[in-house]
Design a protein that fits this description.
single chain; six-stranded mixed β-sheet; six-stranded antiparallel β-sheet; flat; Rossmann fold; Helix Hairpins; 71% helix; alpha/beta; 16 helices; 11% strand; binds adenosine-5'-triphosphate
Length: 898
């Protein structure tokens, strides 16, 4: 059973933002016309069905000036809370959520369609049922009498049933569709027969052609065997033929070769003659070669003899020279020995001689230097420096004294200057700063007189001191002059002393040098006297060597000659003479043996002549060798000819043995051609038959497939016939007389029962009622009422004859009865301005009736502008419009009282 708890409006009709809470029992919404009361129940209706109550569009529900509107409705069904949220524009989808208090909110439906479906489940009724029964618009309570038939048709959807049955309705068109399909099935049946016949024919044809194919294949196999045999036969004939060809070729090759060889052999006698001639010609080669060799030997010997003669001459000359040198050498040997002795002694004395020369030179130099130094010494004067030294000492002492005096003058001058400065300060202080007339020195008081006196005294004192300073200056200058003179004198005297000292040092050095030279000269003289005898000997040896040097040089020239060398040369000469004699003997022998001329020129000419002849012989030998090789070839050709002749005989024998005939070969080939032609024809025939069989089988398969499909299609026939029957039956059932009448009767008795039960709750004397859903009866001028009332006596009373209160009660009861029959639990009744146009008495009656309705529904929402109805409400809400916006105010809440 549904109960409304709360509705929230946002920009909905005249409401900007309103929240209205409802209670069980009677909720009265009161307010002036246009205050926005109906807007609240409109919002409830819109929340439930997303449809406007008024005849306006959804957009028109949005408050003027706002872009979108939303409504939230909180309902309770079987102790569960649901929140329906609807929106117009604004892009938010409608939702329905279940609210579990203090826990969560679960969205059950999203989107207008889904929400509508869920509302239907919660309410147990659709919009048609609700709007025809529990939702009663302004002054429409009794409308139910006039429209009962339509209401019932709407509720029972009889209208739709009729639509189903119409000739252009869905059942009719479905039947038509099935009929069409059945017609197609008839066509298919015809096609099935055709196909079955065709398949039968094709199968027969396949059988025939397969038989023919079998025969042809057998024939083909036989031909194949015969072709194979024929080919083998031809192959063997061809083998013979090829062999014959090869033998014939070979034979002709051999024959050619034979005739060639015979041709070549004709040359042979001529070649043999030439060979003999040449052999004869070259016979002289050997003796000629020997003679040439002898000539060459002779010429060599002649050259050798000539060379020997020259060598002998040379050796003889050399020997004679060596012998004279040897004699010279022997003569000079004594002189040479003396020369060597002296030369050796000279070498020994050489070092001492060098010392002697150097020492004597040194002695000479020292003596010259000594003479020079002694001369210089005589020139030097003797100087005494002590006098000068004393003079310098005295000048320095005097200078010291004068400098001390200067220092004293300077210190005295400083003292005087200090005093003057002091005095001038005192004087200045007296004149400028001392205003207290105090003595700047002792601090005593000073009179003007004192001041003047002091001033004069200071003046006096300064003058005295200045004069003293002047005197000191003069004295200072005088002493300074003396100091400068003394310094100059000191400088001069010191220079004199320095010069004297330098002179003295030179003299000392000279004396020391002289002494040194004297010592050196004495040493050198001693050394020279020791070296003098050796020097004398050296001179003597040198002189003698000068005399001997020529002998020595002559000796050197012949010194290399020895007795052995002379003997060797003599031996060599002897041997060469023997060799030359031997060669001459040899030459004589050859000339005599070979009969050669003795003259060398003649010999050479003869040699050249023999060489030319040998060259000629060489050429002839080459020619001979060429002819001999040709003859050798001809010999081998001759043996080849013999072989060839044998081979030819063998080939002829083999040809004969082959026994090949060309006409046999041609016949066999012709037979093979015929067989192959036959084979080709059979292959074509077999191919044709196979092709035809394949096509026939494919067709059979295709037709079988089509046949199967048709059979499947035909299986539908029975179903289609059944469906058609069912549809015809349905059309029949949906007939007003059948199902519609049944539904109406069912509803009628249920509603009548409920109506009687509800009316019993109302205070009415009528107990029995009868509903009339007959449409025809409600039309026309003499309108037959849709409800017939029976009084206590059982008399029929027309509704129109009843009092207003009775009619309202019955109308309300009828609505509640219909709702109860069709809804699981009718929990709510909504009435908009139910008392319009009612007088006071009727209003009271209505209030009672409404109150009585609470026995049927839990909650009643009543919209009214009639303040009298406030007292009927358990919960009163007042609506007001402020600034064009509707505002809600709770006026009373009798909840507790209830
Ligand atoms: N879209 C809208 N925006 C704002 N106001 C609207 C809109 N549509 C209608 N109205 C106004 O809202 C007001 C409230 O109408 P509603 O039907 O709720 O009033 P009521 O209180 O039921 O009045 P009555 O007793 O005359 O039926 C009216 O004045 C109406 O003209």
């Amino acid at each position: 059973m549904i109960e409304i708890r709360k509705v929230k409006l946002e920009n909905f009709l005249s409401h900007e933002r309103s929240e209205v809470t409802f209670s069980p029992g009677i909720n009265v919404i009161i307010g002036h016309n246009g205050a926005g009361k109906s807007s609240i129940i409109d919002a409830i209706y819109f929340s439930l069905f997303r449809e406007p109550v008024r005849k306006i569009s959804l957009e028109e529900l949005i408050r003027k000036g706002a872009k979108d509107a939303s409504v939230e409705l909180l309902v309770e069904v079987d102790n569960r809370s649901y929140l329906i949220s609807r929106n117009i524009k604004g892009g938010i989808v409608d939702t329905l959520s279940e609210l579990v208090p203090n826990k969560y909110s679960k969205t059950i439906a999203r989107g207008a369609k889904e929400v509508n479906e869920h509302v239907y489940k919660l309410l147990g009724a659709n919009e048609d049922v609700f709007s025809s029964t529990l939702f009663i618009g302004q002054g429409k309570i009794e409308e139910v009498f006039d429209n009962l038939s339509e209401i019932m048709e709407k509720i029972l959807k009889l209208e739709r049933m009729n639509k189903l049955r119409e000739t252009n309705g869905p059942i009719h068109s479905l039947i038509k569709e099935i009929e069409g399909e059945l017609k197609v099935i008839e066509e298919k049946k015809k096609r099935q027969k055709e196909l079955e016949h065709g398949i039968e024919e094709s199968k027969k044809k396949v059988e025939e052609e397969e038989k023919a194919l079998h025969e042809k294949t057998k024939e083909k196999e036989e031909i194949e065997i015969r072709i194979k045999e024929k080919k083998e036969e031809i192959n063997s004939i061809e083998d013979k033929r090829n062999k014959l060809i090869s033998l014939t070729n070979q034979k002709s090759r051999y024959e050619n070769e034979t005739s060639n060889i015979r041709e070549k052999l004709k040359e042979r006698p001529l070649l043999e003659k030439k060979r003999d001639d040449l052999q004869n010609y070259i016979k002289d080669e050997e003796p000629l070669n020997e003679k040439l060799k002898a000539i060459s030997e002779t010429l060599t010997l002649l050259d050798q003899i000539n060379q020997s003669d020259k060598l002998i001459q040379k050796l003889r000359e050399e020997l004679s020279k060596k012998k004279s040198d040897l004699e010279e050498k022997k003569k000079l040997e004594e002189k040479e020995r003396r020369y060597r002795e002296l030369d050796m002694r000279k070498n020994e004395l050489e070092e001492k001689e060098k010392q002697y020369i150097s020492k004597t030179a040194e002695l000479r130099r020292d003596k010259i230097a000594l003479e020079e130094k002694e001369r210089k010494l005589k020139e030097f004067k003797d100087i005494d420096t002590s006098e000068l030294e004393d003079k310098i000492k005295k000048i320095k002492e005097e200078l010291e004294e004068k400098r001390r005096q200067i220092e004293g003058i300077n210190s005295r001058k400083g003292e005087i200057e200090g005093e003057i400065k002091q005095l001038l300060n005192i004087k200045q202080n007296l004149q400028t700063f001392n205003k207290s007339n105090k003595c700047p020195v002792c601090g005593r008081d000073l009179s003007e007189h004192d001041r003047t006196r002091i001033d004069i005294e200071i003046e006096q004192k300064v003058k005295e001191l200045s004069a003293k300073k002047l005197e000191l200056n003069k004295e200072y200058q005088n002493i300074n002059v003396l100091i400068r003179q003394l310094e100059q004198l000191l400088d001069r005297t010191e220079k004199e002393l320095k010069e004297a000292l330098r002179h003295k040092a030179q003299l000392d050095a000279l004396k020391s040098d002289i002494q040194h030279l004297q010592d050196e000269i004495s040493d050198l003289e001693k050394e020279v006297s020791e070296l003098t005898p050796l020097h004398e000997e050296f001179k003597k040896v040198s002189d003698e060597l000068k005399i001997l040097v020529d002998y020595h040089n002559r000796y050197l020239k012949v010194s290399s000659v020895s007795e052995e060398e002379v003997a060797r040369l003599e031996d060599e000469l002897q041997k060469e003479v023997v060799e030359r004699d031997r060669r001459q003997e040899n030459l004589k022998k050859i000339l005599k043996d070979k009969g050669l001329p003795t003259d060398k020129k003649e010999l050479i000419a003869l040699g050249e002549e023999i060489e030319n002849k040998l060259k000629e012989i060489k050429k002839k030998k080459d020619e001979l060798s060429n002819i001999q090789s040709k003859l050798a070839i001809l010999e081998s050709e001759e043996s080849r000819l013999l072989n060839l002749e044998n081979e030819l005989k063998e080939i002829e024998r083999q040809i004969k043995e082959l026994n090949f005939r060309e006409e046999d070969y041609a016949l066999a080939k012709q037979e093979l051609d015929e067989l192959q032609r036959e084979y080709t024809n059979l292959t074509t025939e077999i191919g044709r038959l196979s092709g035809e069989i394949t096509i026939l089988k494919t067709n059979i398969e295709k037709n079988n497939q089509e046949l199967n499909e048709i059979k499947k299609e035909l299986e539908k026939e029975e179903k289609l016939i059944n469906a058609k029957k069912k549809l015809e039956k349905l059309r029949d059932v949906l007939n007003e007389k059948n199902l519609q009448a049944f539904l109406k009767n069912n509803a009628k008795s249920s509603i009548e029962n409920n109506l009687v039960s509800i009316l019993s709750k109302f205070d009415l004397s009528y107990r029995a009622l009868e509903l009339n859903f007959d449409k025809a009866g409600s039309k026309g001028k003499n309108k037959v009422s849709s409800i017939i009332v029976f009084n206590d006596k059982g008399e029929e009373v027309s509704v129109n004859a009843l009092s207003g209160g009775e009619r309202t009660s019955i109308a309300l009861a009828l609505r509640l009865a219909i709702a109860r029959s069709l809804m699981k639990g009718a929990g709510i009744l909504i009435l908009d301005e139910p008392t319009v146009n009612l007088d006071e008495y009727r209003k009271r009656e209505l209030i009672d009736i409404i109150r009585s309705s609470l026995e049927i529904v839990n909650q009643i929402i009543l919209v009214t502008h009639d303040e009298e109805l406030m007292e009927a409400g358990d919960y009163v809400l007042k609506l007001e419009k402020r600034g064009g916006i509707s505002k809600v105010e709770v006026v009373s809440n009798n909840q507790q009282a209830l």
